[in-house]
Automatic annotation (TrEMBL):
Signal peptide: none
Gene3D superfamilies (UniProt xref): Spore Coat Polysaccharide Biosynthesis Protein SpsA, Chain A (3.90.550.10)
Pfam families xref list: NTP_transferase
Record-given protein name: Nucleotidyltransferase family protein
Alphabetical list of InterPro entries matching this protein: Mannose-1P_guanyltransferase, NTP_transferase_dom, Nucleotide-diphossugar_trans
Lineage summary: Bacteria, Bacillati, Actinomycetota, Actinomycetes, Kitasatosporales
Annotated Nucleotidyl transferase domain residues: 8-233
SUPFAM superfamilies from the UniProt entry: Nucleotide-diphospho-sugar transferases
């Protein structure tokens, strides 16, 4: 029987320069999806709580006081503490800095980037991680290409146009399951995706969990992503809701 993680880290320190002017006065995870009245991080915390997480560590940086003020005043579904980087540590260093505040370092933990808008079963991902005895497991998404694609035959005739098809490549979806041993492998400074992950991949200790078919996933990087997310949410709501 699997023991599912009950603790998580949210990396919420990014500046979100491509989301300006929304991020002029708030960090990226505090940007609201139009029509929901709740910032991205609020939806993430609700999702984590629904998946059995009881404790979250939020790593803050850019405009940390805005995020801390919201967390202090919101009715949260789980226990939350914040850590602030006083100097840039890089993604790997920031993750290690936050993981040091997890309540139980002997247990596995989830992590997510603070700009990810998604819903899928974290428990199923944790079971996948445990079955492979992985040190780290990445959720993998297949986002849609933002352009129309063209299909041709062997002779060069165009045979079809496909609007925004799924990418042929899987990408890192920014959601993770980590074994307790992972924390010590993180750099004090720098990017774990350039150091820790490649080493684990060579040792076959890094797993990739494809998001289930139909699972919603979007990285909120630009104003267009906000608009698209609001449209998708509207389309998903039942009539009259």
């Amino acid at each position: 029987m699997h023991t599912y993680p009950t603790q998580a880290v949210i990396l919420a320190g990014g500046q979100g320069s491509r989301l300006r002017p929304y991020t002029d006065d708030r960090p990226k995870p505090m940007v609201e999806i139009p029509g929901t009245g709740t910032p991205i991080i609020g939806h993430q915390l609700s999702w984590l709580a629904a998946e059995g997480v009881t404790d979250a560590v939020v790593s803050c940086g850019h405009l940390a006081d805005v995020l801390q003020e919201w967390l202090a005043s919101a009715a949260l579904p789980l226990r939350v503490i914040t850590v602030v980087e006083t100097e840039p540590l890089g993604r790997g260093g920031g993750l290690k800095h936050a993981a040091a505040r997890l309540p139980d370092p002997s247990q596995p933990w989830y992590a997510t980037n603070g700009d990810i808008w998604t819903r899928f079963s974290l428990r199923e991902m944790a079971a996948f991680h445990a079955e492979r005895d992985a040190t780290a497991t990445l959720a993998l998404a297949r986002p849609r290409i933002p352009w129309g694609a063209v299909e041709t035959d062997a002779f060069g005739h165009i045979t079809d146009f496909i609007e925004s098809p799924p990418s042929p490549y899987l990408i890192n979806a920014g959601v993770y399951v980590f074994a307790p041993a992972f924390t010590s492998l993180l750099p004090d400074r720098g990017d774990h995706e350039r150091t820790t992950f490649p080493g684990l991949a060579r040792e076959r200790h890094l797993a990739g969990y494809p998001l289930p078919h139909g699972a919603y996933w979007r990285a909120i990087d630009t104003a267009k992503d906000l608009t698209e997310a609001a449209k998708e949410l509207g389309a998903a709501r039942p009539q009259g809701a």
